[in-house]
Amino acid sequence: MCTTCGCGDGEARVDGVSVTDAGEHLHEHRHDDGTTHTHWHVRQGGHSHVPAPAAAPHQHADGTWHSHDHDVAALATAAAPLGSVHEPGLPSERIVRIEQDILARNDAFAAANRQALADRGIFALNLVSSPGSGKTTLLVRTIEALKGRIPVCVIEGDQQTSLDADRIRATGAAAVQVNTGKGCHLDAHMVGRAMAQLAPPDGSLLLVENVGNLVCPAAFDLGEAHKVVILSVTEGDDKPLKYPDMFRAADLMLVNKVDLLPYVQFDVGAAVEYAQRIKPGLASIRVSATKGDGFEAWLAWLERGVADARAARDRNVAALRRRVAELEGQLAAADRVA
Amino acid sequence: MHEVALAEGVLRIVMDAARASAATRVHTVWLELGALAHVEPDALEFCFDAVTRGSVAEGARLEIARTAGTAWCMPCGTRVPLARLGDACPACGSHQLQVLEGDAMRVKEIGIA
């Protein structure tokens, strides 16, 4: 807990339920073959586990079910004093080598989220911007425009209140509100919890509206396909230079509120050029969430993403079916020999 | 202030390693923070002091090594230094730069008793 701003763990809530109280937790263990797994569990009384609705679960000899992510062997701590760089400062001090990313835990949750999304062919976006850029209005218009074409689910991040989730639900789309308490960003664990609750349908579009903050959310991978940064013309066109981390993390920039351009001092060309200084080749679309300008291009971009996510899952399923058929063939051949 | 979340990440890694080594005290924590990393070292240090209170790492010295940023300049086809995001290639003035190094945030080692 930070004594200055008070932000930290323990206050995050998904639709009003504390993230930490819900009994779900990250858990690491090593198998006999030496593989280290990190997974998360939903605790159901005592200490029996059921898999979080993430990647393929399996049962251990003790009857525990696990849902796994195999990309995080790096989480294993290499506590080898050999080769350490630093000298002990005190006679009694021992140096332990660690070499671990500070964000490793978040990244493990993000990898699990990404796998769960890929398994279901869901296209997920992490929408980031300053407060007041028009994110929620953009979402509402996007949902209305995609009605009957693509199922859309929304995870809403805000420090407090469910006002945004209420606005989204009014459109008929499923939405879960994550309140970060004093926290300034969504993290992958909160989003995993919200995904479990939301249960977005296969092949759908999942839009995550991050906390309005152009700094902190840049550091946290949520498992999304892309970060989309929204810059509105009522802000400064030099924001990409002032807040470079977010523009570097994004794969698309939406310049919103372009209907107000006649009334404000905002040079769209300069904003795009500044953003591309930070992130060479960054794509951008000019939109108005209230008037609908640029929505054709934005919706086409979304539809391409959804189609690609579905196609990738179909290819994966087809490859698995071929593999199963191959194994069944081998098994049948072995049975004939026996 | 995502530095609180980062400080908690550091503490978690340090505590796991300290437990695995049966440490009773953590004297020093060595971090590598790249010049282009998404963190403010002073804020992280302040938050680290706050989050370690009451743990075996309370009062631990935080030693931060800053690693320089480097990027690949596409027009030059070579590796160039990059002090901060948004800067141009010092040779050709282009912004067509791909970050190569300097965005890491890692716990390197700890000194324990």
Features:
heterodimer; A: 338 residues; alpha/beta; three-stranded antiparallel β-sheet; 15 strands; 33% helix; 23% strand; globular; disordered N terminus; B: 113 residues; alpha+beta; three-stranded mixed β-sheet; 2 helices; 6 strands; elongated
H/E series of chain A, N to C? Answer: EEEEEEEEHEHEHEHEEHHEHEH
Helix and strand content put the structural class of chain B at alpha+beta
Total number of beta strands of chain A? 15
N-C termini distance of chain A: 65 Å
Strand-and-helix sequence of chain B, N→C?
Answer: HEHEEEEE
pLDDT below 50 for ≥5 consecutive residues: which ranges of chain B?
none
Radius of gyration of chain A using CA atoms only: 23 Å
Structural class of chain A: alpha/beta
Helix content, binned percent of chain A? 25-40%
| Helix fraction bin of chain B | 25-40%
Beta percentage of chain A is 15-25%
- 3D shape of chain A: globular
Low-pLDDT stretches of chain A: 1-9, 21-30, 34-82
Number of helices of chain B: 2
Describe this structure in words.
The complex is a heterodimer of chains A (338) and B (113). Chain A has 338 residues and is α/β, with parallel strands linked by helices. Helix content of chain A is 33%, strand content 23%. In chain A, the strands form 3 sheets. A 9-stranded mixed beta sheet of chain A has the order 2-1-11-10-12-9-13-14-15, sandwiched between helices. In chain A, strands 3-4-5 form a 3-stranded antiparallel beta sheet, covered by helices on one side. The longest helix of chain A is centred in the last third of the chain and has 43 residues. Chain B is α+β, with helices and mostly antiparallel strands and 113 residues long. Chain B contains 2 helices and 6 strands. In chain B, helix 1 packs across helix 2. The longest helix of chain B is centred in the N-terminal third of the chain and has 18 residues. The two termini of chain B are 31 Å apart. The interface between A and B is large, with 50 and 51 residues. Strand 8 of chain A pairs antiparallel with strand 6 of chain B.
